[in-house]
TrEMBL record:
Domain Flavin reductase like: 33-180
Taxonomic lineage: Bacteria, Bacillati, Actinomycetota, Actinomycetes, Pseudonocardiales
Keywords of this entry: Oxidoreductase
GO molecular function list: FMN binding; riboflavin reductase (NADPH) activity
Transmembrane segments: none
Region (Disordered), start-end ranges: 1-24
Name of the featured protein: NADH-FMN oxidoreductase RutF, flavin reductase (DIM6/NTAB) family
SUPFAM superfamilies: FMN-binding split barrel
InterPro entries in the record: Flavin_Rdtase-like_dom, NADH-dep_flavin_reductase, Split_barrel_FMN-bd
Amino acid sequence: MADNGLAAGGRRPVARLPNPPRLSPQASLREVMGQFATGVTVLTAGGRDGHGMTANAFTSVSLEPPLVLCCVAKAARIHEVIMTARSFAVSILGGDQRDVAKHFADWRRPRGRAQFDAIGWFRGPRTGTPLVADALAWLECELVKVYAGGDHSIFVGEVLDARRGEGGPALVFHGGEFQTTGGAPSLVHDRKAIS
């Protein structure tokens, strides 16, 4: 009699399930979200009190109309700057821009426009907001909605201008480290580097 994979009585045998995964103890939301790899951006806002910050809570929302969102802690200095300027810009960082990401994550950096003196930058053509030179891409956005999100605000912006750079590896954040796409982890290890 041919072996057709059926047990006596014409039923398939119960497949042996692998051992259940080993679960670690309860983890904080920060620890769990640290396992989610994200791109790294510098979020900037213009106005007389221009400001920038490293951010990875950024994503596209809609193509028509073109909308993106970013999440910013209400206690962050840039929060009020975005609310006042009613616009923001995003520079998507390349794999060789870890120092820029570290600079805008450091709370000791100068306030206002002086914080841009340490990096290459240019004014966005639509809003005049500082944009990081040599980034992979840039967006300038008009603030169209603000939603409460616990200790953060969710800023939704309509894209006024979108531009691409020359391309290359991207800077990503995973497991508390800056890494590059297609590359090994960088030497930077700072779990508090990203807001």
